[in-house]
Design goal:
This protein is mostly beta strands and 149 residues long. It is 0% helix and 70% strand. It has strands at residues 23-33, 37-50, 53-64, 67-82, 86-100, 105-119, 124-133, 138-148.
Length: 149
């Protein structure tokens, strides 16, 4: 059954296309500076907030510089279409981190800005983040997203 005003009903009884949203998960990895680390992790891509605004939470585990860093970042990103290439995005928010050192650990909350490029032809993205407070100074990474449209 079609309901008036829903995406399923269109003038003349034709079926309208559903709203364009993406939801998926994937893997990511890269390098950071201060601390100098290699990191690996996972992310969700929930591009369903409003139009081009998406929610992309991630969790990474970094190794190096005599410590291990567990970071959880619930990023909000805004996407800008780039014809024939993909989408640029920018955003950020806070990052929650647990820093594991030799015999102790500490919890920190920091801020970061993130920007990247999602490719249309492949489910890959390139990303850079700049730490604003209690976050790695710079993170550069690549990710792979399995999408369900």
């Amino acid at each position: 059954a079609s309901f008036p005003g829903s995406w399923r009903s269109a003038p003349g009884g034709a079926q309208a296309a559903p709203p364009t949203t993406t939801a998926g998960w994937g893997l990511r990895g890269g390098f950071s500076d201060d601390p100098d680390q290699v990191f690996f992790g996972t992310h969700l891509d929930l591009s369903i907030l409003a139009g081009d605004l998406g929610f992309r939470p991630s969790a990474t585990l970094g190794f190096g510089d005599d410590l291990t860093l567990l970071a959880i970042s619930p990023d909000l990103v805004y996407r800008y279409p780039v014809p024939d290439i993909g989408r640029l995005y920018a955003g950020g928010i806070l990052t929650m981190q647990v820093v594991f050192m030799e015999a102790e650990s500490e919890f920190e909350i920091g801020w970061h800005a993130v920007a990247g490029l999602e490719l249309d032809e492949y489910p890959l993205f390139l990303e850079a983040a700049i730490g604003l407070d209690d976050a790695p100074d710079v993170k550069v990474g690549i990710g792979y997203t399995l999408l369900a449209r």
